[in-house]
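User: Run a structure prediction on this.
Assistant: Running it now.
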Amino acid sequence: MNPPYNDYDWDTQKSGKIFDPLKPINDSQYNTGAKILPPAQPAFLWYSYDNSSEFPLLGNGGRTAMAGPTYYQDDYPETESKFPKYYDGKLFIYEWMRGWMMSVTLDEEGNYVRMERFLLEKEFSNPTDMAFGPEGDLYVLEYGSAWFQQNSDARLVHLTYNRSNRKPIAKIGTPIEYGKSPFRAALSAADSYDRDGDSLTYEWRLGDQIISIEKETSFIFEDPGLYSVSLEVKDEEGALGSSSIKFKVGNALPQLNIEKSYQIAVRDEEDGTLGAGITEDEVITTIDYLHEGLDRNVIAIGHGTLKQLSLGKFLIQSSDCSSCHQDKKKSIGPSFYAISKKYQMNLAAKNF
């Protein structure tokens, strides 16, 4: 597949004739090299923002295709973590925006045969580079979720092949992650599991302090601050899995009350009340009136404000908007919050 672009006149802002991919011509006034260029080569893989009928595994949304290394098993020493023969000669590709990684099978002439998801359960945070190390392990560099920020999720991932016992998966459950001090955090490891079906032991830590070895426990934070609690789960053969969660102590949840007169009262222990510390534009309200005998499904179908908010969020997540905009942090472009404040009173923008 090799679809050409139209020639575009920037002065008239109109599209012209379609370029010839078999005979590309660079007639720019700034061109200092060859005018007639070699034929454009067909794409190895191709996909748009939508689902691809040719390559359905690639998904949809923002797109930034990245080509990684090809694995050759004989290039690396014999180790326990060496990738198996199955991956010999396979090309690894990955997606900056969508976060997946694929292994691609080629024929002897280097033509595409098939692809399959590599590490199906793992979604990478804007992978930006990938290489096999001298020992045959795979290294992936993750840029993180925001442009030009000190991303907490930016990291170098070291991937090794495990031929036997697999590490357990540690998952932390908690009903709420913030509140005023003293704050009681409820902690559960009930969703943790082992792919091999081994029984697990648990260890909860606050820094270097072990606070519990139970599957479910709680801990009281006496003073305000940001606290990181980690969970380690160990299987019968000693393999460890870990996870962590941050608790923000010192700020209680606001209390919301709607009176029968449709007066809304908001109270927050730190920020005050509606009209005295909390402004009206910081409160979003949606109300549906149910007439007697009216089917509740009708209301669900026509649900107004929140439905539009959910639709907007879905459209943003399924596009490449997040490559330049973040929720509240400035990136290449302004944050979504800053955009919403700018057009808050513009009815035309709201109805667009």
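The CA atoms of residues 29 and 194 lie 63 Å apart.
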